[in-house]
Amino acid sequence: MSQGPGAQPGPPSVYHERQRLELCAIHALNNVLQQQRFNQEAADEICKRLAPDSLLNPHRSLLGTGNYDVNVIMAALQGLGLATVWWDRRRPLSQLALPQVLGLILNLPSPVSLGQLSLPLRRRHWVALRQVGGVYYNLDSKLRAPKALGDEDGLRAFLAKCLAQGLCQVLLVVTREVEEKGSWLRAD
């Protein structure tokens, strides 16, 4: 599969873009879709559509370096005929019907650093998780290469660890049909 700008080779046929500026939302979208579908210009255009009369757009960084919010991610996926579902962290992960889920996008706290100096600040960071060839991968754009999580149990263990650390939000990427039927959720 072709690799876009900033993309690095990983395990065979796993698309993975590396972090550039504050574009983790764009990288998460492309990584979950397993191809370059979005760039900064497309995300900025979505921001303009979401807040057409806003002098300072609330959906991105004031500096124009990215830092896009969830509304941009949701609108981008909706434009492709996909849907998003917030995972209620109070539900047991065993209720997540993974075969019905195209991928997951996590929003995690991320430390801020200047070179080697770690600052006592936390920013938010978007991370994609996706199954490719029967294996779930962590496609975090801050990683040098995709990190294999294994099967469904491996993914659930990773999600449980992230959720246990607090302040983690999980967004399921599904087809509209799966969203409408609610088939991303299975009864336990």
Describe the fold and architecture.
This protein has 188 residues and is of the alpha+beta class. It has one domain: Cathepsin B, Chain A. The chain has helices at 24-33, 40-50, 70-79, 152-164, 176-181, and strands at 82-86, 103-114, 117-132, 135-138, 147-150, 169-175. The chain has a six-stranded antiparallel sheet with strand order 1-6-2-3-4-5, sandwiched between helices. Helix 2 (40-50) crosses helix 3. It starts with 23 loop residues before the first helix and ends in a 7-residue tail after the last helix. The mean pLDDT is 84.
Per-chain topology:
Blueprint (H helix, E strand, L loop, with lengths): L23 H10 L6 H11 L19 H10 L2 E5 L16 E12 L2 E16 L2 E4 L8 E4 L1 H13 L4 E7 H6 L7
Antiparallel strand pairs: 1-6, 2-3, 2-6, 3-4, 4-5
Helix pairs in contact: 2-3
- Write down the overall mean pLDDT: 84
Named at the architecture level, the CATH assignment is: Alpha-Beta Complex
Strand order of the largest sheet: 1-6-2-3-4-5
- Through-space gap between termini: 38 Å
- Percent of residues in helical segments? 25-40%
* Order of secondary-structure elements: HHHEEEEEHEH
Structure described in brief:
With 188 residues, this protein is of the alpha+beta class. It has helices spanning 24-33, 40-50, 70-79, 152-164, 176-181; strands spanning 82-86, 103-114, 117-132, 135-138, 147-150, 169-175.
